[in-house]
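Predict structure. Chain length: 164.
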Amino acid sequence: MSDTPGPMGHGVNQRHLIRMTPEEIDDFLAGRRVASLCSINHDGTIHTVAMWYGFLEGAMAFETKAKSQKVQNLRRNPTITCMVEDGDTYDQLRGVELVGRAEIVDDPERLWALGVSVWERYNGPYSEEVKPLVEVMLHKRVGVRLLVDRVVSWDHRKLNPTGV
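Prediction complete.
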């Protein structure tokens, strides 16, 4: 693909310039951010919710109510897309889109590991003192583990690395 301007109305394709490396993606997702989780409703429309996330067995994962709409959707159709983004101006936009399949996790040990991961990312270190809070957080919950098929990333800061 060319980076020269095309016909009127078509911009310059700079995808290859703004793509994050695998290490940059890992660092970005390790940050304390919010993910948009998208599933497919029974009528084909898209259901999107903001979610805190953790990691389970190396994969992005969420804890949520077992009877939530997203879980109903993912049990019916495990197709899932999650996006994590950052930036307040166009030149600072960056993000990662993860497309794949959802694994519903109801095994208590795996769910506990996920609950601790989410707790530590958003609340602070896990200890026996906070165990009751994590127990309450996981009451009537399941995990959703994202099995990634495709990753799309962007970091507009790479377009002008000198900041001038």
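Summary: The helical segments are 15-18, 22-30, 69-76, 108-122, 131-137.
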